[in-house]
């Protein structure tokens, strides 16, 4: 490992970091280096691509400090017993790489995680040193996201928050049962205690901002990630756990990562990865709870008795088909919270409806201009010139509103 040059280390440790999905770069404070001070910026147009809420593509240098680890989690490609090539950066090498990539306009920030070497405290010290050196020695003002370690000293985690824009602690698996089975060296209660400590530290730092020189702590908040499909947890289990984490620790995001088979996998792991569409449906459910007013119980209802969300239709449509008594909805009279429940209508479309109906009664043609497919909306809405008298009670409604299946092209 000592004989590897920086380029070979980068090849190994960038590849090892690809399994971590939680590297969005939104919600942080705005900083730049205009005026000749500092280097870097948290703004601008987008070697990991993340997306801000406004759709901008943002590139981050996404690497591990090391892929060596003292833990032996079954689902992790970097576990102690895994037969993979190991590498390790020094803190200075990560700093130099980040600056070099930024100056070449390759990236706008850094996403840094690590396997655990020697001890959680030692590893956390190295991670913090990278961020400290970038901020204090080089006045770097770009985006920094640090993965923190649950068992590390809380003071080290606090320092990580001071020097970074976002921190995250992976909850790993949706259930305590799954964690004990696949990662027996980790403790779900300790992980959540660490998340609670970060949440309290962020709140305390926010209260102290009335003082001019009080440091900000992780202005983009904290996030976490759950592995989907490595254990027997259902979509309902995952959604309920995510909702609990959002409520208790004020998380900015919960990320879902479909389990991927790894080399020399343990016998307790599934032989096949779950459908990627399952991960997508969980993200859609997460979006419904965060922006559409859905409650976790609504998503559980959409999943049905099996606890699994349907893969052929989105969760919003699944919920609507299970609650036919709530439809059709009068677009000219219904409150915003009910308009947001209509399949096929997004937040922007609903806001446009609310603004337009103050001026006139909306017709079906008006709604057609706000959506991709008006045919999918017809069974669920009432407009000035439309009432679904024949569609509303049809038992075979799902085939009419579900998206058509498409044949994929091999070279498309």
UniProtKB/TrEMBL annotation:
<dbReference type="GO" id="GO:0003824">
    <property type="term" value="F:catalytic activity"/>
</dbReference>
<feature type="domain" description="Elp3/MiaA/NifB-like radical SAM core">
    <location>
        <begin position="59"/>
        <end position="285"/>
    </location>
</feature>
<dbReference type="GO" id="GO:0051536">
    <property type="term" value="F:iron-sulfur cluster binding"/>
</dbReference>
<dbReference type="InterPro" id="IPR007197">
    <property type="entry name" value="rSAM"/>
</dbReference>
<dbReference type="InterPro" id="IPR051675">
    <property type="entry name" value="Endo/Exo/Phosphatase_dom_1"/>
</dbReference>
<protein>
    <recommendedName>
        <fullName>Elp3/MiaA/NifB-like radical SAM core domain-containing protein</fullName>
    </recommendedName>
</protein>
<dbReference type="Pfam" id="PF04055">
    <property type="entry name" value="Radical_SAM"/>
</dbReference>
<keyword id="KW-0411">Iron-sulfur</keyword>
<dbReference type="InterPro" id="IPR006638">
    <property type="entry name" value="Elp3/MiaA/NifB-like_rSAM"/>
</dbReference>
<dbReference type="InterPro" id="IPR023874">
    <property type="entry name" value="DNA_rSAM_put"/>
</dbReference>
<keyword id="KW-0949">S-adenosyl-L-methionine</keyword>
<dbReference type="GO" id="GO:0046872">
    <property type="term" value="F:metal ion binding"/>
</dbReference>
<dbReference type="InterPro" id="IPR058240">
    <property type="entry name" value="rSAM_sf"/>
</dbReference>
<dbReference type="InterPro" id="IPR013785">
    <property type="entry name" value="Aldolase_TIM"/>
</dbReference>
<keyword id="KW-0479">Metal-binding</keyword>
<keyword id="KW-0408">Iron</keyword>
<dbReference type="InterPro" id="IPR010994">
    <property type="entry name" value="RuvA_2-like"/>
</dbReference>
């Amino acid at each position: 490992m000592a004989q590897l040059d920086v380029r070979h280390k980068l090849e190994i440790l960038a590849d090892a970091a690809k399994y971590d999905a939680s590297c969005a770069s939104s919600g942080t404070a705005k900083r730049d280096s205009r005026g000749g001070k500092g280097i870097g910026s948290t703004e601008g147009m987008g070697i990991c691509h993340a997306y801000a809420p406004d759709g901008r593509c943002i590139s981050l240098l996404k690497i591990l400090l090391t892929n060596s680890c003292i833990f032996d989690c079954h689902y992790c490609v970097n576990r102690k017993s895994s037969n993979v090539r190991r590498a390790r950066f020094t803190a200075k090498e990560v700093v130099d790489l980040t600056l070099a990539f930024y100056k070449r306009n390759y990236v706008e920030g850094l996403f840094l995680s690590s396997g655990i070497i020697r001890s959680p405290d030692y590893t956390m010290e190295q991670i913090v040193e990278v961020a400290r050196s970038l901020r204090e020695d080089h006045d770097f003002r770009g985006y920094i996201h640090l993965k923190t370690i649950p068992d590390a000293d809380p003071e080290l985690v606090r320092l990580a928050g001071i020097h970074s824009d976002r921190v995250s602690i992976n909850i790993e698996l949706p259930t305590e049962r799954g964690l004990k089975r696949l990662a027996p060296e980790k403790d779900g209660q300790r992980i959540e205690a660490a998340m609670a400590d970060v949440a309290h530290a962020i709140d305390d730092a926010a209260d102290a901002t009335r003082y001019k020189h009080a440091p900000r702590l992780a202005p983009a908040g904290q996030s976490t990630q759950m592995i989907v499909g490595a254990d027997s947890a259902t979509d309902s289990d995952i959604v309920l756990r995510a909702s609990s984490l959002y409520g208790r620790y004020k998380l900015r995001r919960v990320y879902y990562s479909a389990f991927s088979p790894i080399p020399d996998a343990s016998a307790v792991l599934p032989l096949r990865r779950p459908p990627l569409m399952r991960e997508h449906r969980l993200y859609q459910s997460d979006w419904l709870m965060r922006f559409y007013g859905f409650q976790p119980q609504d998503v559980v209802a959409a999943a049905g008795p099996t606890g699994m969300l349907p893969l052929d239709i989105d969760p919003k449509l699944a919920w609507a088909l299970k609650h036919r008594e709530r439809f059709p909805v009068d677009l000219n009279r219904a409150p915003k919270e009910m308009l947001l429940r209509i399949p096929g209508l997004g937040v922007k479309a609903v806001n446009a409806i609310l603004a337009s109906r103050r001026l006139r009664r909306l017709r079906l043609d008006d709604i057609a201009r706000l959506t991709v497919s008006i045919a999918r909306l017809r069974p669920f809405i009432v407009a000035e010139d439309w009432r679904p008298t024949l569609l509303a009670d049809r038992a075979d409604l799902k085939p009419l509103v579900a998206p058509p299946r498409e044949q994929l092209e091999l070279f498309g």
